[in-house]
Amino acid sequence: MTTSNENSPLVSKDDGSHTQERHPPPLIPMGLGPETNHDDDMSAPEPTHRRTTTATTVEIFGCAVNDIVVFFVLPAMFYFAVVVRVAAYVIDVAWDGGTIPTGPYRLVEAHVGGDFFSHYDFYDGPDSVGSAGHNSYVPRSRAEELGIAGVVVDNGGDDGEEEFAYMSSAATHSGPRDSIRLEGRTRFDRGLFVLDVRHMPDGCGVWPAFWLTDEARWPMNGEVDVLEGVNGQTTAKTALHTSNQCDMYAHVAPYAKTGHWEMITGIPDHFTGDPDYQTVKGADNCWTMAPHQWENEGCTVVHERNDTIGAPVNANGGGLYVLEWDPVGRYHEGLKGGYIKSWVFSPSIPQNLRDALDTAGMEDSSKRVAPDPLSWGLPYAYFAIGETTGCSADHFKHMRIVFDLAFCGTVSGNRFTRECPALAKTFNVTNEHGDNDPVSTCNAYIESNPKALEQAYWKIKGVYVYERELEHQRNKFGQG
User: Fold this and answer.
1) Same domain flag for 143 and 191
2) Rg of the chain in Å (alpha carbons)
3) Is residue 42 part of a domain?
């Protein structure tokens, strides 16, 4: 028997007569819990669920270093790279200013001659619920069959023969007239829009319009009425229609435009319903539901002259209607924020604008004259949008050009008795109370197919759309 040390932990006493040798406790392989027991097999195989590591792998808090790299280090490196890129972009914009559309205007579309209708879709169906015109819009094939849409050729005098887009309407047995509504195929977020019109629809019960909108998201994406004639009016107006928080009050200086805000009175009292003629205010809130304005009136500027639309312009052989929509503004000219401006030129036209249109058809774009609105004089309408204004620029976006020719409806119809009193007396239609119904009276007049409606047609030389070139913006340090 081998002699052993009595104090050794491997030796124990048994009733004092002899000693008993003990084995040391078995080693527990890494990864196994204390319930695992291999007393009978000191060389028990390594459990299959244990992670095999290399000599360079270290475990921290139960995770291998490889896990930490995959789940923590790599994502951190990715996000750090993103932050660096974003920071670099911000610094670049702050220092270099980035590029924004503030350079010279360049022609992007010209709707002229035989190519005019290729830029538009013909809407097919009744007028919208909001307008409720006494007419139905027809597709191109039907319009051409009726002779109410097409390209006409006239003797242009010194210029020889010229092509014009022609649009009108036709009477029907059912009552509402067949008419035309064109919807542009291109969407815009800015631009200079020039309408060269030689004759526009005119007369009582007639409601033509040239405008921009995104009808699918109206009024969130805005509406701009460039030319809108009602019952033979002769004074041009420009109106904006938007969602809430688009107010021009105190944001448009009187010297920025030659026209004036349309004045409003007679709005029914909110509680009694009685017309309030004591309150008179300008229509300077573009929200369609603005308080103290008529529903969907929007912000409206009226031209200072009463010969800027309809019959007087037709008598002059037409005119130019120009809209400048610049959501950014030209910072290097000292302007803050963007704007929407409009002009009417008839019969005189600024030389720069005349040269721009005369050279628009040149194949060599370098020979085209760039329109310069700053050389034309003050616009009659000015609306402040964007930075530092009461109307953010995103109230107007994704809009397209629309032409239409409507009759009566919610505007021309409701105003028919007041603005065409002689005809209203002749075609008077009363309601159940025996009072004149202006819309029904207007409809009765239109259904009579009067000879006066022969003047209700469009004759358009062209539509020209320009956009500014990109150039460096002045940075926040005043450098650019």
Assistant:
1) yes
2) 39
3) no
The strand pairing partners of 101, in sequence order, are 470
- Residue ranges of the alpha helices (H) in 331-400? 351-358
Q: Which of 122, 272, 113, 108 is nearest to 194 (CA)?
A: 108
Evaluate if pTM is beyond 0.85. Answer: no
136 and 121 assigned to the same domain = yes
Peptide bond before 350: cis, by omega within 30 degrees of 0?
no
pLDDT at 474: 55
Query: In angstroms, rounded to a whole number, what is the distance separating the alpha carbons of residues 179 and 205?
Result: 14
Residue 80 shares a structural domain with residue 191: no
pLDDT of residue 307: 98
Residue 216 and residue 241 in one domain: yes
pLDDT, average across residues 456-478:
81
Residue 16 domain flag: no
Give dist(CA 249, CA 282) in Å, integer. 9
Per-residue confidence (pLDDT) for residue 186, from 0 to 100: 98
**Pair 333, 351 in one domain:** yes
Side-chain half-sphere exposure of 106, counting CA atoms within 13 A: 12
Looking at the predicted structure, is the pLDDT value of residue 404 above 50? yes
CATH of the domain at 371: 2.60.120.200
Instruction: Give residue 102's pLDDT band: very low, low, confident or very high (50, 70, 90).
Output: confident
Split at pLDDT 50, 70, 90, the class of 70 is: low
Domains in the chain: how many in total? 2
**Distance, CA of 176 to CA of 295 (rounded, Å):** 25
Q: Do the domain assignments include residue 368?
A: yes
Sign for the pseudo-dihedral over CA of 51, 57, 58, 61: negative
How far lies 96's CA from each of 86, 474, 478, in Å? 15, 7, 10
The whole-chain average pLDDT of the chain stands at 84
Are 114 and 89 part of one and the same domain? Answer: no
Q: Is 231 left (phi over 0), alpha (psi -120 to 50) or beta?
A: left
Strands (E), 34-174: 59-60, 63-64, 99-112, 120-122, 125-126, 135-137, 149-155, 161-167
Q: Is 118 exposed, middle or buried (0-12, 13-18, 19+ CB in 10 A)?
A: exposed
- Residue 134 within any structural domain of the chain: yes
Look up the domain containing 88 and give its range: 68-96
Interatomic CA distance for residues 442 and 448, integer angstroms: 10
Instruction: Assess whether 73 and 171 both reside in one domain.
Output: no
Cis peptide before 219 (omega within 30 of 0): yes
Q: 72 and 158 share a domain?
A: no
Task: Please report the pLDDT score of residue 50 as a whole number.
Answer: 34
